[in-house]
Inverse folding.
């Protein structure tokens, strides 16, 4: 009578069969059984025994073929930081990354990051990235760019699920590990950026890799950098990540000036690197903010661009940011608007510019911030930018802008502020040497007509319009006084 086989004997027979089976003849159930045996070993606390098995010379063939399926259970143990098996698991992972074929390893690692528990996102990302980078650097050919792109996209997608710290103390605490995660993600991308920058490889493969890296940079500009509070006076982790992204753009032959100021690339492959619609504009708007407000990368920004050209291009991004309801977007939009205006000489923006869509949309969105935004500090900042924009317009442009605001604002506070500016322009134009027809004589009448117009006719609430009427009366008094003085001067 034959002695029945024990479980241990059965496992030995299975392993013996695997050692003598060519890789092409292995079946899906073999891979599943190999993973089950490895996981059971870890569950039973036999990490040292598993490591010894993986390193044994006679097992290298099967490990090379099937070892990739053990990545998930091993990394799960590492993430849980189980002390009794941590060192053995780390050593086993290191052995697998140098022994297994890279393509299946990449696939296994990417599967691991597809659906991470929210509470383990940061720890999993930090555990996976060093080993994933080791494997990706072993790849070559067309699959390399696609694998790098999938890795960066998958990891970024998981980190984007975490809340972005909005204040400096929150960023320093890094409760959810977002800052550490993005720092590790930048380190993962760095050798591939340097590879493209060197330009010593196959041109087609480098172009594919460049496209994937550009996708990563664009996604990062939108999340988390557009949401983050950044300050060049404090080099926080997210500031350093922003610096890394902005430095990567010229390294992959996509300098910020080209990305922001000129048409998107025409080739389909490069066009695919851009996000769609509003998302792409948000990413570029963040890049414009980092460049012109935080001055990241400004040293390499071409000096040939005039302040007017920069303003005109940036107003598209300002309009995009000011159309948002998010505080972080509005703050960046106001700061970018102000910085873009500061280099433009006062009274230099001609009336023809107001015909451009960007010169219409950005001030309109700014007006909506002044009238609709519930946050006082944003309204106060917005009013300062509003006045700065007015100061940059020449007299004819001011006249047209004031008419437009009086017709469309439907807000007593904005109308009162415009009338105050009209009064200031009239005062200025009455001074010797400053006469300007836009705010004197016949040209002034259309503005006065708009100011005197009662929007609800006889039903208009005069208390609501009191500021406007008071400002108008002052303006009329000053004009009358100046006319009286002029008439009283002795003729020569």
């Amino acid at each position: 009578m034959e002695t029945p086989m024990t479980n241990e004997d059965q496992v030995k027979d299975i392993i013996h069969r695997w050692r003598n089976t060519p890789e092409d003849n292995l079946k899906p159930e073999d891979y599943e059984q190999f993973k089950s045996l490895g996981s059971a070993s870890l569950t039973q606390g036999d990490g040292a025994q598993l490591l010894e098995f993986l390193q044994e010379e006679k097992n290298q063939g099967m490990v090379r073929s099937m070892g990739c399926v053990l990545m998930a259970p091993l990394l799960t143990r590492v993430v849980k930081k189980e002390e009794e098996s941590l060192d053995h698991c780390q050593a086993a992972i290191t052995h697998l990354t140098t022994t297994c074929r890279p393509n299946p390893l990449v696939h296994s690692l990417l599967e691991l990051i597809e659906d991470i528990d929210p509470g383990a996102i940061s720890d999993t990302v930090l555990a996976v990235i060093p080993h994933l980078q080791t494997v990706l650097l072993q790849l070559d050919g067309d699959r390399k760019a696609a694998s790098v792109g999938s890795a960066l996209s998958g990891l970024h997608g998981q980190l984007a699920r975490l809340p972005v710290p909005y204040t400096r103390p929150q960023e320093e605490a890094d409760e959810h590990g977002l800052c550490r995660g993005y720092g590790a993600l930048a380190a993962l991308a760095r050798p591939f950026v340097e590879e493209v920058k060197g330009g010593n490889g196959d041109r087609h493969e480098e172009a594919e890799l460049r496209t994937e890296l550009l996708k990563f940079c664009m996604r990062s500009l939108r999340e988390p950098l557009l949401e983050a509070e950044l300050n060049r006076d404090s080099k926080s982790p997210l500031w350093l990540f922003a610096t890394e992204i902005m430095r990567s753009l010229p390294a992959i032959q996509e300098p910020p000036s080209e990305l922001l100021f000129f048409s998107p690339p025409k080739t389909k492959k490069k066009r695919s690197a851009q996000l769609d619609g509003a998302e792409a504009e948000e990413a570029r708007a963040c890049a414009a903010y980092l460049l012109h407000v935080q001055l990241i990368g400004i040293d390499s920004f071409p000096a040939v661009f005039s302040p007017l050209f920069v303003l005109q291009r940036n107003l598209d991004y300002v309009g995009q940011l000011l159309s948002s309801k998010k505080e972080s977007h509005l703050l960046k939009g106001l700061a970018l608007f102000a910085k873009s205006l500061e280099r433009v000489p006062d009274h230099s923006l001609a009336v023809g510019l107001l015909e451009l869509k960007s010169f219409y949309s950005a001030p309109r969105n700014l007006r909506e911030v002044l009238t609709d935004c519930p946050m006082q500090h944003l309204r106060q900042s917005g009013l300062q930018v509003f006045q700065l924009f007015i100061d940059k317009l020449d007299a004819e442009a001011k006249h047209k802008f004031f008419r437009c605001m009086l017709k469309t604002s439907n807000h007593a506070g904005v109308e009162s502020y415009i009338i105050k500016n009209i009064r200031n322009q009239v005062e200025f134009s009455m001074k010797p040497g400053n006469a300007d027809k836009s705010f004197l004589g016949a040209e002034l009448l259309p503005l006065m007509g708009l100011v005197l117009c009662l929007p609800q006719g006889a039903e208009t609430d005069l208390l609501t319009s009191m500021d406007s009427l008071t400002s108008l009366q002052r303006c009329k008094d000053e004009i009358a006084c100046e006319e009286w003085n002029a008439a009283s001067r002795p003729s020569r």
About this structure: The CA atoms of residues 133 and 345 lie 50 Å apart. Residues 1-6, 265-272, 482-492 have pLDDT under 50 and may be disordered. The radius of gyration is 33 Å.
